[in-house]
């Protein structure tokens, strides 16, 4: 079994917005992960400032038809809606509740990021294609490796049966 080389998807693409710069990570041809220092350690120069308040932000944008937008809630779980846009006030807060963004700050981020993501994606079809191809390669490689592992396990079990019976069972 040969371990296959993982292909990296395009990432750390800087995009400027009126609230500050963000980094794009194009994980698939239809998915862009937006990071603006969401864990407060990624990059102190990246982050969004809305009405004087600094936020760490992460967002998942998907292509729906020809439109890019924040990941839609699938209706199967509230988890999608809560993880599609993560925001947290940056700073030395000791009360977690104090780090929660206001609803208007969340809406402002979505309103600001959406057209930027759309424009960037429309202008960079080659990067989206590269990400799509890397994603397909990586997923295929992962499945091929899993098949090879299972085939090796089956061969081992067949050998054990042979050793028990002294003859082929299959």
General description of the model:
The structure is a single chain. The protein is α+β, with helices and mostly antiparallel strands and 170 residues long. 41% of the residues lie in helices and 26% in strands. The protein has a domain at 13-124. It has three helices and seven strands; from the N terminus they run E-E-E-E-E-E-H-E-H-H. A hairpin with a 2-residue loop joins strand 2 and strand 3 (31-36). The longest helix is centred in the last third of the chain and has 41 residues, at 125-165. The radius of gyration is 22 Å and the shape is elongated.
Share of β-strand residues: 25-35%
Radius of gyration: 22 Å
Oligomer state equals single chain
Helix and strand string, N-terminal first?
A: EEEEEEHEHH
Estimated structural class: alpha+beta
Count of beta strands: 7
Number of helices: 3
For the biggest sheet, the summary is:
7 strands, antiparallel
Unreliable runs, pLDDT <50, ≥5 residues?
77-81
Shape: elongated
End-to-end separation in angstroms reads 24 Å
| Share of helix, binned | 40-55%
Mean pLDDT: 83
